[in-house]
Amino acid sequence: TTPRGRRDRAFLLFLARTGARVSEATGVNANDLHLQRGRPQVLLHGKGRRDRVVPISRDLVRSLTELLKERGLCHHEPQPIFVGVHNERLTRFGATHIVRRAVSQARSAKPGLNAKPVSPHTFRHSLAMKLLRSGVDLLTIQAWLGHAQVATTHRYAAADVEMMRRGLVKAGV
Predict the structure, then answer these.
(1) Which of 9, 107, 121, 154 is catalytic?
(2) Would you call 34 a catalytic residue per the annotation?
(3) Is the CB of residue 28 less than 8 Å from the CB of residue 78?
(4) Which of 7, 17, 71, 124 is catalytic?
(5) How far is CA 101 from CA 106, 111, 142, in A?
(6) pLDDT (mean) for 147-167
(7) DSSP letters along 38-58, please?
(8) How far apart are the two ends of the chain, measured CA to CA in Å?
(9) Exposed, middle or buried: residue 20 (CB in 10 Å: 0-12, 13-18, 19+)?
(10) Is 49 part of the annotated catalytic residue set?
(11) Is 21 part of the annotated catalytic residue set?
(12) Helix axes 3-18, 120-133, angle to 10 degrees
């Protein structure tokens, strides 16, 4: 219900829905967003100067629209979306702090989080696994995550034993 809380929610949702690296998420400006109906998307500035466009969900569009309005930003401004207490671009440390604070609050409802390390990268990994388990092919996931090599993306497929089990059941083995 506070400005910081709304910023944190938007930031966590951004990590979870886009699969952005923390540096990509903190580097997003208002003019990188295209929130129009039909094809909302964000331009992420990736590693090695490789930019990519990823779609964004309706709940993220709502959250970002509200955040932009609250901060008085227009879509065409090259101003950072996620800022810290001094109105400067959120840092990697600030992003990690937001995640840790959220996990700390969530632990009372989800005690299983006590045994798990959660970082901004956890959101990226979770999205990759969700896409994979939903049947999205590795090349699409590679493009979505901005991996230079499909071998990097393949690690997600190799790690998912549950998908392998379902494959055995499907194959009748």
Answers:
(1) 121
(2) no
(3) no
(4) 124
(5) 9, 15, 30
(6) 71
(7) S--EEEEE-GGG-EEEEE--H
(8) 52
(9) buried
(10) no
(11) yes
(12) 40
Task: Provide the mean pLDDT of the chain.
Answer: 88
Which residue in 47, 58, 130, 133 is the catalytic one?
A: 47
Higher per-residue pLDDT: 111 or 78: 78
Residue in 57, 86, 63, 80 with CA at minimum distance from that of residue 8 = 63
Question: Please, what's the largest Cα pairwise distance for the chain?
Answer: 59
Scanning the structure block, which residue is given the tokens 């509200």? 66
The helix (H) or strand (E) run that includes residue 34 is: strand 33-34
Rounded Cα distance between 129 and 141, Å, is 9
* Residue 86 annotated in active site: no
Instruction: Tell me the whole-structure pTM to 2 decimals.
Output: 0.85
Please state, in angstroms and rounded to a whole number, the distance separating the CA atoms of residues 83 and 65. 15
DSSP string of 111-161?
GGGGGS---HHHHHHHHHHHHHHTT--HHHHHHHHT-SSHHHHHHHHHH-H
